[in-house]
Specification:
Number of strands: 6
Low-confidence stretches: 1-10, 102-127
Distance between the termini: 28 Å
Radius of gyration: 15 Å
Structural class: alpha+beta
Order of helices and strands: HHEEEEEEHH
Mean pLDDT: 77
Number of helices: 4
């Protein structure tokens, strides 16, 4: 694992600027993991699809159901971008970039890491 991958994978919030940059380009879907406090008071981290951005907020639709929640769950929520604990973006090529794993890390046989090498490839493509 490269040093930059290891450093960023230990702190996904450090990759938020990279997330914002990649999300501003054409993509095939943005998913984030966000904290959710269930009816039992347990904090779970759920995967959600990003529907839109508004300033520092994200409108999301929960994709994974909480394990410890009882009762009805509204799937549409608003979360601060700063609250995300993981993210992935499906690129036009079908590859994925994300905080815990990126296409370049996977192609190098690295099982986890931040989107450390991918941003320059996209920058080159979109410049």
């Amino acid at each position: 694992m490269t040093r930059s991958c290891k450093r960023l994978s230990e702190r996904p919030k450090d990759s938020i600027p990279n997330f914002r940059e990649l999300a501003s380009h054409p993509n095939r879907g943005i998913r984030v993991k966000v904290p959710f406090v269930s009816s039992t008071g347990t904090t779970e981290h759920l995967w959600a699809e990003v529907l839109s951005f508004r300033d520092k907020q994200m409108e999301v639709r929960y994709l994974t159901p909480p394990v410890t929640h009882n009762g009805r769950l509204e799937r549409l929520h608003t979360h601060a971008v700063a609250d995300l604990t993981d993210w992935q973006i499906e690129l036009p090529s079908g590859r994925y970039a994300g905080a815990s794993r990126c296409a370049s890390c996977l192609s190098e046989g690295v099982s986890s890491g931040a989107a450390c090498r991918l941003s320059w490839r996209l920058k080159k493509k979109y410049d």
